[in-house]
Design a protein that fits this description.
By secondary structure, this protein is of the alpha+beta class. Helices cover about 30% and strands about 20% of the residues. Helix 2 packs parallel to helix 3, helix 2 (about 100-115) runs parallel beside helix 6 (about 235-245) and helix 4 packs across helix 5 (about 225-230). The relative contact order is 0.16.
Length: about 375
């Protein structure tokens, strides 16, 4: 079957402009989020319960088609800026990564950074490289994924760039905001604070394992939920925003490279240590089943797997009940997994004995 080629790089930009143009403009949306909604418990968009800011599209003066975008700032807020890159053969493999889900994931991983600061996303930009001769259907699928995620979280595309390269790479930049003084940094943890994590870490690592072993057939197998968690992670925006609004989180980071490694980064920023307890650690039924049927200890996947994009945060002991109440109101697990200490990073097994991890998480270099 002959592939459809795109020869002119300007065509990519024109296609993005067409897909992300005026249909969203003026829509009555809020880029604040509350309840989880939709397939698989994904956090969705809702207007009630959280103070709204101006809909993002109404703040775009000029988006795609000029040398820069032009947007309006929000009084009383600070700007949050983050960027991420997904590189073929490093972060994904095309044979088991559907194009639409790749587009969604590319945006979601940057939205997760905004969530970790307690912020609301405003706009995003994307830079993409494609190899010569790539099937245009794959490109269209990535665009569809961007559009799907953009619509779900009310985050307009305001600019981008394309180029030809030997492999597919996608770099997303998301701009967000949070009220001045409400940003949640990594550096606020103090000895005695309780460590919490949202969701069930380890699912993405399990999903990657089954995708590598079974390809796209994994999406129809018994570990299909884990495979989808790897391919299409859910940024915990409403949780981050509420933890900020209610002043519950003393520090926070999203789990991109593994719970243990990202906790180490948080404690280093805070000048403290941590102790994690595997007793009561939240794991999914799928990870438990995988561990039991293969004899593989689940601890390594849950603590060192990475790409879960859950929120890892600390809170004062006096606020533990408030965190539990927030967890119930959002319908999202927020589980106590340890405490902040003076120094070091220790993992205690369910039997009370120290556990030594083979690695803390994914190291890029």
């Amino acid at each position: 079957m002959k592939k459809t080629k795109v020869e002119n790089e300007d065509a990519f930009v024109k296609e993005l402009a067409k897909r992300f143009a005026s249909p969203l403009e003026g829509r009555q949306t809020s880029n604040r989020l509350t309840k989880k909604q939709g397939r698989g418990g994904r956090e969705g968009r809702a207007a009630s319960g959280v103070p709204a800011v101006a809909p993002a599209w109404r703040r775009v003066i000029k988006s795609i088609g000029d040398d820069t975008s032009v947007t309006l700032p929000s009084p009383g807020s600070v700007l949050l800026t983050t960027t991420d890159t997904l590189v073929e053969s490093t972060h994904f493999e095309r044979p088991y990564t559907p194009a639409r889900l790749l587009g969604r994931k590319a945006l979601s991983v940057s939205l997760s950074d905004i969530a970790a600061m307690g912020g609301a996303p405003l706009f995003f930009l994307v830079s993409i490289t494609f190899p010569a001769g790539i099937d245009k259907k794959y490109i269209d699928g990535i665009y569809d994924g961007f559009k799907s995620c953009s619509d779900e979280f009310g985050v307009p595309l305001i600019g981008g760039n394309t180029a030809r390269a030997p492999i597919v790479t996608i770099s997303t930049t998301v701009l967000g905001e949070v009220k001045r003084g409400r940003e949640v940094l990594r550096s606020g943890a103090r000895p005695g604070d309780i460590i919490f994590v949202t969701g069930t870490p380890g699912d993405s690592a399990l999903g990657l394992k089954v995708l590598q072993n079974h390809g796209l057939k994994a999406l129809k197998g018994r570990f299909k939920r884990a495979a989808l968690r790897h391919l299409d992670p859910a940024p915990r925006l409403s949780a981050g925003q509420e933890l900020s609004r209610l002043k519950l989180a003393t520090s926070m980071i999203d789990v991109s490279d593994g719970v243990a490694l990202d906790l180490k980064r948080l404690t280093q920023a805070s000048g403290a240590g941590a102790e994690i307890c595997l007793s009561g650690f939240p794991i999914s039924k799928e990870l438990k089943l995988f561990s039991e049927t293969t004899g593989t200890p689940w601890g390594e996947l849950a603590l060192s797997g990475g790409e879960d994009y859950e929120l890892l945060f600390t809170a004062r002991p006096k606020d533990e009940k408030k965190v539990a109440a927030l967890s119930r109101s959002l319908g999202l697990k927020m589980t106590r997994i340890g405490r902040i200490t003076e120094t070091g990073l220790n993992v205690i097994g369910a039997d009370g004995r120290p556990v030594k991890l083979k690695r803390l998480g994914f190291e890029h270099f």
